[in-house]
Amino acid sequence: MLHEDADTYRERQEEFISDLTGTTMLELVLVSTPIPMGVWLLAEAKVLLAGCEKSLPAFGWHGFFVELLAVVFPALVCMLWPSLTGTLVLSMALTSACCRLKRQYRMTCSGKADRSAEMPRGKDLGGPMMEAVTNIRASIMLMTCITILAVDFQVFPRRFAKTEVFGTGLMDLGVGATIFASGLGSGCRVKRESGHPRSGRSVWRTMLADIASTAIRAWPLAALGLSRLVVIKGLGYQEHVSEYGVHWNFFATLFFLRLVVVPMNRIRPVRFKPFLALVALSVYQWFLAKGGLSDFIVHAPRDSLFAMNREGILGLVGFVSIYYMAEELGSQISAHHQRLKARQHQQFLSSSVTIAARANVVLWGLTLLSEAFIQQTSRRMVNLTYVLWVCAHSMLMLGLLMVVDSLSLKRPTSRVLAAINMNMFPVFMVANLATGAVNISMRTLDADTLSAIMTLTIYVVFVAGVAVALSNRGLTIKV
């Protein structure tokens, strides 16, 4: 291996991430639970240590590393050693419960009333959204950032990497969940506008103007997509063509997603957007199942620009559907919050958990039915089952975070997660640059377990540190 040339090593890397079939949906749910449990543990521990103080404790380096230990590192451990997930999650839940019981015992012995329930709950540090939405958006981004580097090491379970055609892997989930997080945030921020559509000519002119202005604002995505393409081709970096295509990558997907989404915001009524997206997805799924489109995506020669990038181009249909389903969910949460803003926060959470539970039953039921009777889950095709699965999994995590929020007392939001939520694109960009730097500086495929763990630990601390540094300086970079 010491004298192995670059081409041979690249071939080994490409074989390392090829022909994978993934794992079960249940295992992916389990390895996603450490972050919600860490948020609960952090909340209970802070309340226990801070007593009934109304101000949050100072967040310096000590606080930063405490949050790494409670929230970030457990996620990393469970991704690398999923067999430890049950033990770790149970330990975190028991520790959180013990913190709660100890505080209640302390208050009982002192004869003081527990005023924590009367205090205003921690304000969302990442914007005007409720804490659970902040946490799920940041959790998705954190897990995505971890996996994009971890997948290059032998210590990362192969079943969590992207699948070749059909199947469910952790990285398959990360792609769609990132877009789900974007749509969820958009739905929570944007108010529903009333009014009637303008004349056809005016609407089309406005849409074209929106596309042009969006392309200008989203130029960093296009630049990163082109830069990644040039670097991969120029440096001989490993690539898996069946992920997105020959020239396409995830940054290109994000860029063109923006070009589709922004002009569609002119559609009235606004609830017609997710309906239109689902109709398009249904037609797309019919062509996949009955029209030979699945065979084209998997087996057709790459003899034209479209054929070379068919996964990325055709996958936009499914990704747009994920975005609008998440946006509709976010707008419903925001509207529900506005209706109950004059009432107790606990009542809002209780009703939100009920809504999330019902949505989970529906989405998981549809996912399992689609998997059994329509087509297996395929991130490569971004088919109907994949869209339903991403939304179901994300909704389950959101519901779990709502439960954690309702269980907690006065709960300061995790500063690390809030910081990631404030600057999701810069954090993702830094993670990609750091991943490239690591792969250029070392042969990750040949790294032993200790070297891999040390590298990944430094990497996650660096990425989280960049997010916190931007937050502390009040910098928010949107694209």
UniProtKB/TrEMBL annotation:
Assigned keywords, A-Z: Membrane, Transmembrane, Transmembrane helix
Subcellular location: Membrane
Pfam families hit by this protein: GWT1
Keyword NAD applies: no
Main localization category: membrane
Ranges in a coiled coil: none
Membrane topology: Multi-pass membrane protein
Listed GO CC annotations: endoplasmic reticulum; membrane
Naturally occurring in which organism (per UniProt): Ectocarpus siliculosus
Sample GO molecular function, one term: glucosaminyl-phosphatidylinositol O-acyltransferase activity
Name of the featured protein: Phosphatidylinositol-glycan biosynthesis class W protein
One GO-annotated biological process of the protein: GPI anchor biosynthetic process
Entry keyword annotation includes Ribonucleoprotein: no
Chain ranges passing through the membrane: 20-43, 79-99, 138-156, 168-186, 207-226, 246-263, 275-293, 305-326, 347-366, 386-404, 416-438, 450-470
